[in-house]
UniProtKB/TrEMBL annotation:
Family named by the database record: In the C-terminal section; belongs to the trehalose phosphatase family. In the N-terminal section; belongs to the glycosyltransferase 20 family.
GO molecular function: alpha,alpha-trehalose-phosphate synthase (UDP-forming) activity; trehalose-phosphatase activity
Coiled-coil residue windows: none
Name of the molecule in the record: Trehalose-phosphatase
Recorded superkingdom: Eukaryota
GO cellular component, one term: cytosol
CDD domains the record matches: GT20_TPS, HAD_TPP
Pfam family, any one: Trehalose_PPase
Gene3D superfamilies per the UniProt record, alphabetical: Glycogen Phosphorylase B, HAD superfamily/HAD-like, Trehalose-6-phosphate phosphatase related protein, domain 2
Gene Ontology BP terms: cellular response to heat; fungal-type cell wall organization; trehalose biosynthetic process
PANTHER family: TREHALOSE-6-PHOSPHATE SYNTHASE, TREHALOSE-PHOSPHATASE
Length: 596
């Protein structure tokens, strides 16, 4: 591994849909590895959409068509249709010694006949068998073109071994059968409508064929960058031959002026071949001029220039000067050792325990409980868990630690150390909004499979972590709009968008108000401010705590506000730790340095 480098990743091949990707045993490893890049590029929009969908469905990350929010950082995703070296193709196709003679020889050999050219690798996604079947259908439907059209199909073997792979051998057998059938039905002793060459062509032969052709036919059923289509356009600058291009080709989106086909629709392809043959010179020239302009202005040089500029733009927007530094543990330990009164405020989910698909499964490990209990047992320490969880959950899993203070539902309830009673900080507020919110949540729960409602004493939470990730996100957006246009206009409540959930709660209470209250209670009880404060949280609700501490009168060198996540995450915290395991390790480190 090479740390602290910028990475740009580009995939010119198709990216599978989530339905295929989820079948791979190493699916998470592959996606996580790609997300190590700062920017990810794809040949087409559909491939970038598949990648974003995989990151959401398989890894659970928030995504859109501009990027992925992964591990606390934003990874840019964009589309960069790759081009060819047009100058090199021009030179090989028009300036290579002897190329003109080869072109004339091909045209002379097929004098009086229209030439359709195809060149593909010998694999299933290139659609060669579909091309041959469509050509057979064309000759059946349009008998007037028999003996007047020839299909020259060149296939490059994908394997260099003497014995072909099983799949390649199967495709080769199918092609041989189709070629024999077509030539037997529509050929003669002097002419075969399909000329099939299963070999590699030298550049002179290949570009001569592209120049001599009247139609380029590409029928790939799945494709990334298709160089043949681009090279064909450059080689047709004199002849203006139409390009028939599969809509599943990676270049179809770029070459919008080409004639697009569905290679599985054999009759449709046959009809398009006939239409291409009947195009007037003016129509051919108009189509070609648009294709030629695009291909010659979107070259491999312009592609690399665009890609690098976009990468540098993304990197410049990520200012290292505003990146949150890793927690300075030596400084933390130094202040901890010399302090006489300490205040700790910890979030729960994503801070002490990792985020999991089922919220009820996020129970604290034995190590977490031991570490927190040891920290709270120190008489110099005042330790609090400030969570969005309800009272019942915190009582069940943390309530046995008598020295520990608890705050539930983002500050709506508070339970002081060595006290079994909960104080309701919202008991004087009107809770009439709950009925309206519950009806709206029920509406979306009925329409979103896997979602459910969590009814707390005050807050109401709609979870969609078990739902289809993309549909759940869509429904959450619609639900939020619904709430904003109804309940929020009539009641003093707010909607919090959490990790795969929406929560509605009163506006006057949040984690920040609890943090302020705890600092004041500490000062009132002991007659002085704490001289060491460690506040840890991982999501936007914890930013209220960081904000409250930043606005307090506490000396900055005594306050350690720490976000859990990547350094690039936008936060008000002064420091960061990467994950919950680092949080527990840091607390354990403090426990080990506690003075006796």
């Amino acid at each position: 591994m090479v740390p602290n480098i910028y990475i740009g990743f580009f995939l010119h091949a198709p990216f599978p849909s989530s339905e295929f990707m989820r079948c791979l045993s190493k699916r998470k490893d592959i996606l996580t590895g790609v997300l190590g890049a700062n920017m990810i590029g794809f040949q087409t929009f559909s491939y970038s959409r598949h990648f974003a969908s995989c990151c959401t469905r398989i890894l659970g990350f928030d995504s859109n068509y501009a990027g992925i929010d992964a591990y606390g950082a934003h990874v840019a995703v964009d589309v960069f249709p790759i081009g060819i070296d047009v100058d090199a193709v021009r030179k090989l196709a028009y300036e290579e010694p002897g190329i003109g003679e080869i072109v004339n020889s091909i045209r002379k050999q097929y004098h009086g006949k229209r030439i359709i050219i195809g060149r593909d690798r010998l694999d299933s996604v290139r659609g060669v068998t579909q091309k041959l079947m469509a050509f057979e259908t064309f000759l059946e439907r349009y008998p007037q073109w028999r003996n007047k059209v020839v299909l020259i199909q060149v296939t490059n073997p994908t394997s260099v071994e003497e014995e072909k792979e099983e799949s390649e051998a199967k495709i080769s057998s199918q092609m041989s059968h189709l070629v024999s059938t077509i030539n037997g039905r529509f050929g003669s002793l002097s002419f075969s409508p399909v000329q099939h060459y299963s070999r590699y062509l030298v550049p002179q032969e290949y570009f001569a064929l592209l120049r001599a052709a009247d139609i380029g036919l590409i029928t790939s059923v799945r494709d990334g960058m298709n160089t043949t289509s681009l090279e064909y356009v450059v080689c047709q600058h004199e002849n203006h031959g139409p390009l028939i291009l599969s809509e599943f080709s990676g270049t179809a989106g770029s070459l919008s002026s080409a004639i697009h086909i569905n290679p599985w629709d054999l009759g449709g392809v046959a009809d398009v071949i006939n239409q291409a043959l009947l195009m007037t010179p003016e129509e051919r020239e108009a189509q070609h001029s648009q294709l030629y302009k695009y291909v010659t202005t979107h070259t491999i040089i312009s592609w690399s220039d665009k890609y690098l500029k976009r990468l540098l733009t993304n990197l410049s927007s990520f200012d290292q000067s505003i990146a949150t530094p890793a927690l300075d543990k030596s400084r933390l330990l130094s202040q901890y050792r010399k302090s006489r009164g300490r205040l700790f405020m910890f979030d729960y989910d994503g801070t002490l325990t990792p985020i999991v698909k089922d919220p009820q499964a996020a129970i604290p490990s034995d190590r977490v409980l031991r570490t927190i209990k040891t920290l709270a047992a120190d008489r110099k320490n005042s330790v609090w868990i400030i969570s969005g969880r309800d009272q019942a959950f915190l009582d069940e899993w943390m309530g046995h630690i008598s020295e520990l203070g608890l705050s539930a539902e983002h500050g709506c309830f508070i339970r002081h150390p060595r006290n079994d009673d909960w104080e309701n900080l919202t008991e004087k507020s009107n809770m009439g909004w709950q009925k309206e919110v519950l009806e709206i949540f029920q509406h979306y729960t009925e329409r979103t499979q896997g979602s459910f409602i969590e009814r707390k004493r005050v807050a109401l939470t709609w979870h969609y972590r078990r739902a289809d990730p993309e549909y759940g996100t869509f429904q959450a957006t619609e639900c939020r709009k619904h709430l904003e246009n109804t309940v929020l206009k009539r009641w003093p409540v707010e909607v919090l968008s959490g990790k795969a959930n929406l929560e509605v709660r009163p506006t006057f209470i949040n984690k920040g108000s609890i943090a302020t209250r705890l600092v004041e209670e500490y000062k009132h009880g002991l007659g002085q401010d704490p001289d060491f404060v460690l506040c840890l949280g991982d999501d936007f609700t914890d930013e209220d705590m960081f904000r409250a501490l930043a606005n307090s009168s506490l000396p900055r060198d005594r306050v350690f506000s720490v976000t859990v996540g990547a350094s690039s995450k936008q936060t008000l915290a002064n420091w960061h730790l990467l994950e919950p395991a680092d949080v527990i390790a840091t607390i354990a480190l403090l426990n080990s340095k506690t003075s006796s």
